[in-house]
Design goal:
single chain; 155 residues; mainly alpha; 4 helices; 0% strand
Amino acid sequence: MMVKSTMDTGEGERLLAARRRRFWTIVALLVGTGALVGFFSGMYAGYTDAARAEGGVAALGPSDFPFVLRIAAVAAAVLAFAALTWWFTVSVDELEIADNLWGSTAGLYAYSILFPAWWALWKLEVTSEPDDWIIFATSLIVAGIVYLWRKWRYR
């Protein structure tokens, strides 16, 4: 007769599992919040653009909402993002923080280089006026690439 032995997980494994669950919960909340804000703002923008394209007036414009509600909606989104990123920062280990710092620094450098260079080329009449969204997206892409490279390279 064989005796079946079960080993309980140790404290370290339980802490690691809890940290991993917290990490993915926060990531899911950040992605979900961004998806909801993106969906509703995109739906609103598409609806109003379609109404204007048909020669009509958009059913609901920004001025149809009270000023305080418009400010509150943006403030709520900013506060939710800030709270979730703070929660993420205090929930991860020092290696994750280091990877985030490297990515953030690279993204800041990309923005700090791209904007003045594009602005100077615009003033010299070589290119069009700088597009803030292209520069912003490029800096986020650079930050993401550096972050993922650090995760892949040093793990």
